[in-house]
Amino acid sequence: MHPSGNRPAAHPSLVDNHGRSITYLRLAVTDRCNLRCRYCMPARGVRFVPYEDILRYEELVRLVHVFADLGISKVRITGGEPFARRDILPFLKQVKSIKGIDGLYITTNGIAMAEHLDALREMGISGINLSLDTLDPGLFRRLTGKDRLDRVMATLHGCLKRKIPLKINTVILDDTSDKTIRDIAGLARQYPLAVRFIEKMPFSGGNGVKNSGQGQLQQRLARLFSLERIQATQPSTACLFKVPGFTGTLGIIEGHSRKFCATCNKLRVTPLGILKTCLYDSGVLDLKTMLRSSHNDTAIAGAVLAAVGKRHADGRQAEELCGGGNEPSMASIGG
To answer: How much is the CA Rg of the chain, to the nearest whole Å?
Structure first.
């Protein structure tokens, strides 16, 4: 039985007004985080959303049912830090069991995750994206405000041991050294994982961390490594490369340069239940209000279809017309 009792008619695909098929939902379950990364959180901190204003688990599950009926097949759970929210595992199991959801993924900083890896493997988690910007304990502490690198590495090695597909997300800043890049890339030399280097995004509350070398990541990596482009077979935010002698792969995610808008296949729901059809828009639909009022699932699905039918052509247009990019942190959006 559908949670609401009013199941919308299934759509074989969700296609926007530019002909892009939407199959991927990034679902933020909290704005809380147990780190204070200097490129994400402003120096003055952020005011967290009151707990009662964040979507409840049953509301999140209901939304995933609606999106699955619209053709969404991949869900990524994000935050903040998803494992900063209590009772996350039962929720993940519910999402994994929803018909039509072929892939369930998590983006995490790994601080509180290692102890849950057996349960995640048992439920059949599709993959984990682990945020890790340095292998140096002192630099990790300066970047994140916490001395927790050992916990992140426990999660990394725990995923490898259990053969859980793993990607490492590394943000590149103005002061990110070649040594740091080589060290992180060395993980892909040694292990069957993907290391993706990410342009620093502007969602940091004006904390003085500049966008570094935007549009130049590939040139920098090409100076450090012999890169062989891997041709994409499906929409992806990352440009992937083979490197001679590497077990895994390297990648570049140019979110600030907006190199992948033409094939973008994702939607986002923020911790407050706001639908974003683009990272750079200011929110296009208040799903929480619909969930907490008399709207049934058919009405919610119709509102989502209408929003997707007015999607901006790319992130630059969305930012220009909507004033997006002013959120206090990526945690407020869903990383």
So the answer is: 19
Binning pLDDT at 50, 70 and 90, where does residue 206 land? very low
Report the DSSP beta bridge partners of residue 195: 168, 250
- Residue 135: phi and psi, rounded to 5, are -105, 5
What gap in Å lies between CA 286 and CA 40, rounded to an integer? 24
DSSP string over 162-225: TT--EEEEEEE-TT--HHHHHHHHHHHHHSS-EEEEEEPPS-STT-SPPPPSTT-HHHHHHHHS
The label of the residue with tokens 């706001």 reads: 274
> What's the rounded Cα separation, in Å, for the pair 216 and 177?
14
Query: Structure pTM?
Result: 0.89
Question: Which run of H or of E encompasses 116?
Answer: none
Q: Map residue 276 onto helix, strand or coil.
A: strand
> How crowded is residue 112: how many other Cβ atoms within 10 Å of its Cβ?
17
- Euclidean distance between CA atoms 322 and 307, whole angstroms: 14
Per DSSP, the three-state class of 67 is helix
Q: What is the CATH number assigned to the segment(s) 14-333?
A: 3.20.20.70
SS3 264: coil
3-state SS class at 147: coil
CB atoms within 10 A of CB 95: 20
Average pLDDT, the chain: 88
| Helix, strand, or coil (residue 228) | strand
* C-alpha span between 185 and 191 (Å, rounded): 10
Run of H or E residues at 286: strand 285-286
- Taking only the tens place, the pLDDT of each residue in 78-106 is 999 999 999 999 999 999 999 999 999 99
Rounded mean pLDDT, 238-257? 89
**With contact defined as beta carbons under 8 Å apart, do 179 and 133 qualify?**
no
Segments making up each domain of the chain, as ranges:
14-333
